[in-house]
């Protein structure tokens, strides 16, 4: 190994955290002797376990229990809360900004490294739909999940207190665009929560609400198979959820959802979960990318043609060596999901340690075990090792699998305790929308009128 190996990990999500965790274990002696240093640059000081975001939005799990503090888990790594703005891999330097950048005069910092791990994750894939940027709500972060929960409950409060039928109808119409995991699970959990909450409103019933799922293709949840996808559509429709297949959102300007099938309806809630795309940082690295903007990687998780650069997860196009190559063409790529990301991170951490020690590298190979999805409390679908499950067994498997994947015993114990307590007591239906404007009360007391948020206007004016 070199006199001192500086390893820079860009991103603190699945791959970033698990790779750094593996490195601090594999290089424990080298780190202690000062021969290796691992720096993690992340925009947040925590890793979000995204599969539990729908349950956090529904109130089944506390928001702080679906995030893992990086400083606690990566106690032998250097954590920098900031964002990498540019990379010069030829010179082995990264330019980044931190929370103190503006206070220090706005000059970005330059960090030198010997080994680079690119794990910035992905961002929401949006389309130029009129009104989407103004009124759409994402579902990739814990802040968005909790904001959506508060928003849904606030809409129910608006509908309960208004005498205007148009305002009531718009408040009780909830549109979700995208039939993948994020959209279906978020819709299933929130509809289940809202239906339960109506029992505490004297003038609202589940039938008053309109839930719409818009999917551009002819099926939803392709990961669980065609049969389970059809079952999911049937189950959602049985719950009075309007599933629109082969339909696109053409516009949501003026808070009116207009679909490609000619439908239009006012709504104050439009959740956009129509896929993700690689982080924009990758486009400016000068490293080889595939047609979708992901880093071209070898089965050893090294960036192809770029020594000392590594990647995995959403940012990487990794060949699936367990799948047969079609003729003379390239092998299929690993799906960008959590199942691969966690396992790739372990191999990636090992391979960096192997590389520093001059040892042979491991090849990433994982046979896809299957997929599970939750549709609300005690409801789910699963296709695991060729077996198809639905209803309570699938829901139970969903919880058991993701509990096993959740990092740290601390978080596992807290989530399990919340599930046990949730089975003994009723759901919480409290909206804490004021968390989004915590200084509003004080500003009013101090004689200053807080700036008005157009989203708070029941009629949706801007």
TrEMBL record:
Residues 450-462 have a biased composition (Basic and acidic residues). Keywords: FAD, Flavoprotein, Membrane, NAD, Oxidoreductase, Transmembrane, Transmembrane helix. The keyword Isomerase does not apply. Residues 441-462 are annotated as: Disordered. The keyword NAD applies. InterPro entries: FAD/NAD-bd_sf, FAD/NAD-binding_dom, NDH-2. GO terms for molecular function: NADH dehydrogenase activity. The chain crosses the membrane at residues 6-23. Residues 6-329 form the FAD/NAD(P)-binding domain. Signal peptide: none annotated. Belongs to the NADH dehydrogenase family. This is NAD(P)/FAD-dependent oxidoreductase.
